[in-house]
Amino acid sequence: MQNTGVAIIGTGFMGWVHVEALRRCNRPIVGILGSSPGKSREAAETLQIEKAYEDLRQLLADEDVTSVHIATPNRLHFPMVKACLEAGKHVMCEKPLAMNSKESAELVELSVAYPKLAAGVNYNIRFYPLCMETREMISTGALGEVLHITGSYTQDWLSKQTDYNWRVLADEGGELRAVADIGTHWFDLITSLSGLEIEAVCADLKTVYDVRRRPVGEVATFSGSSETEKQLQDVLINTEDYGAILLKFKGGARGSVFVSQVMPGRKNCLQFEIAGSKSTLSWNSEQGNEIWIGHRDRPNERLIRDPALLSSAAATVASYPGGHNEGYADSFKQSFRSFYGYIGQNDWQAVPPYATFADGHREVALCEAILASHQNQSWVTVGE
Ligand code: SOE
């Protein structure tokens, strides 16, 4: 199969982030599919994409399409990924990979059955250059033994009772929301950077708004509160707005993280601090072009993202010179460059540089352990 045409499924916030990033890494987008033929046509026109598909069947029959990006509500990930792989298309799926670990395990098996199809989950934050640098520093021993990892992922776009989007509904997004939607980014990031596996979790979750005031009709992610513009109706919410989780890593390291989508002023803020026996690293996605390096016996440092100062692994995901800030959109570009670079090299034994379905499955299993821990108010071993 040639490494060529891409189709996008999903016309919301994530759909257009994918379109823009694919264009920035020169991947030809041949068509788009929305939740109705009208939505497909509207998106194709706005985004200047040649084909607007009527339905999934038409997309899958398109021989110009060799890979599909899935950016739909979570409940559709499983059937769509399955259909795409079975039709012989490479798949890049938004996170979380599936609604539960039964589905995600089945997708892992399916991806193994198609060894020449790339199957990725878009955990894009790995691809920030200073995250890649963190990974290098840990793997080369510059930090020493990892002792503990702490941090958070916080947002405010759901902080008013009138804020609403499909993500708040368990039927659309899954039983866990803040933890699955943003927490799994944090988990993917710190496990891929540190190489550590999470063994057990102890979680406390909280739904701040048991009832949200939902506008009649659909609301796009990050589109703001519409309390004055539309007619509102009550909707019962049973997914969490907040979660705090203690972590035990295999090998003995410890950690803790909190996630919140109701924290006014925190727009989209992922933070981590990794304490090693020699040094500490601290990074914040809202100031993603610098990292703090803490020392005991010499002055602390601040490393500014500059490909000339980074390891070669990190420099490959930094396109712009130092001082020319890169951020969220660039991490998608680098994620897709790595995905298509992998397909292009045609070595299906090589370890993929992007998050695989096995990684996506681990995240879903972790979410289930977190939910069980919260429900039992006790430590839960992941995968049990
Ligand atoms: C909404 O919380 C969201 O769009 C997440 O779904 C994305 O994964 C994250 O990148 C930004 O926030």
How does the SSE layout of this entry go?
Layout: E1 5-9, H1 13-24, E2 29-33, H2 37-47, E3 51-52, H3 56-61, E4 65-70, H4 77-86, E5 90-93, H5 101-113, E6 119-121, H6 129-139, E7 146-155, H7 170-173, H8 178-194, E8 198-206, E9 211-215, E10 232-236, E11 242-249, E12 254-260, E13 268-276, E14 279-284, E15 290-295, E16 301-304, H9 312-315, H10 328-345, E17 355-356, H11 357-376, E18 380-381
Parallel strand pairs: 1-2, 1-4, 2-3, 4-5, 5-6, 7-12
Antiparallel strand pairs: 6-17, 7-13, 8-11, 8-18, 9-10, 11-12, 13-14, 14-15, 15-16
Helix pairs in contact: 1-10, 4-5, 5-11, 6-8, 8-11
The protein binds alpha-L-sorbopyranose.
Alpha-L-sorbopyranose (SOE) is lined by residues 13, 155, 181-182, 185, 221, 268.
Note the main sheet.
9 strands, mixed
What is the CATH superfamily of the largest domain? Dihydrodipicolinate Reductase, domain 2
Strand fraction equals 25-35%
Ligands bound, unique: alpha-L-sorbopyranose
**H-E order:** EHEHEHEHEHEHEHHEEEEEEEEEHHEHE
**By helix and strand content, what is the structural category?**
alpha/beta
Shape: globular
DSSP, total strands = 18
Give the helix proportion (percent range). 25-40%
Cα-to-Cα separation, first versus last residue:
39 Å
The residue ranges in which pLDDT falls below 50 over 5 or more consecutive positions are none
- Fill in the CATH topology of the largest domain: Dihydrodipicolinate Reductase, domain 2
- The average pLDDT score comes to 96
The quaternary organization reads as single chain
